[in-house]
């Protein structure tokens, strides 16, 4: 018998002790999401689950609050093929990008007519009887595109992906224009953490030029390397990386799509999670 009159239970395991404390405090189970997260963190503290399992549980809960706009690949970063292109024009784009799915567009990126799977091109280059490259017709290969609003919740989107057996959807803004695309990998990353998928290739290079004014810059790029590339003089005494410098200017943890201007450079967050920023699109103003 303990001093407070309660019987001690030396035979209890860590699990049973933790569960007894939980049930005494929360009769009837957790009433809010915060209660549930607290229980899970206590389970982690009691070594009943590892840190990765806790992170995945928290990620699952966050999918109900996270919107598609927070994880999508922005329109400017989309690799597309045009409906009028020939096989010879499409193949180099597919090979160079390394992607497996491509939006097929008409006159502009706002006119998406469907999705092309890279694997559907193999039969025109592998000598399969009946698939002569001369008979190539992109319209016969295009699969229906799925469109979702920017505000859609990730838990709902994941259910839709599973139900429709889709891996990609085009994201539509409030005006009906294409804002970007989202893949099933983007959703799963919110649960299991970063996955090196086909749209992450830019993150392996410190600085990747897109056109004369736009660049993709890895947030871990040393400020010294950024200065050498762009001929700038950003200070590197307080921060070592571009991400550290830009985060300081934001003053908070930015979400995908947020922008901040430093001198003649506009830094737009392209990829980020609740812990860090991974990739910026940097637009250089005319000097």
From TrEMBL:
Keywords noted in UniProt: CBS domain, Cobalt, Magnesium, Repeat, Transport
Its job: Plays a role in the transport of magnesium and cobalt ions.
Protein family per UniProt: Belongs to the UPF0053 family.
Organism: Fontimonas thermophila
Short name of one Pfam family: CBS
GO cellular component: plasma membrane
Protein name: Magnesium and cobalt efflux protein CorC
Residue ranges of every copy of the CBS domain listed in the record: 72-138, 141-198
Taxonomy of the source species: Bacteria, Pseudomonadati, Pseudomonadota, Gammaproteobacteria, Nevskiales
InterPro entries: CBS_dom, CBS_dom_sf, CorC_N, FAD-bd_PCMH-like_sf, FAD-bd_PCMH_sub2, Ion_transp-like_CBS, Transptr-assoc_dom
GO function term, MF aspect, one: flavin adenine dinucleotide binding
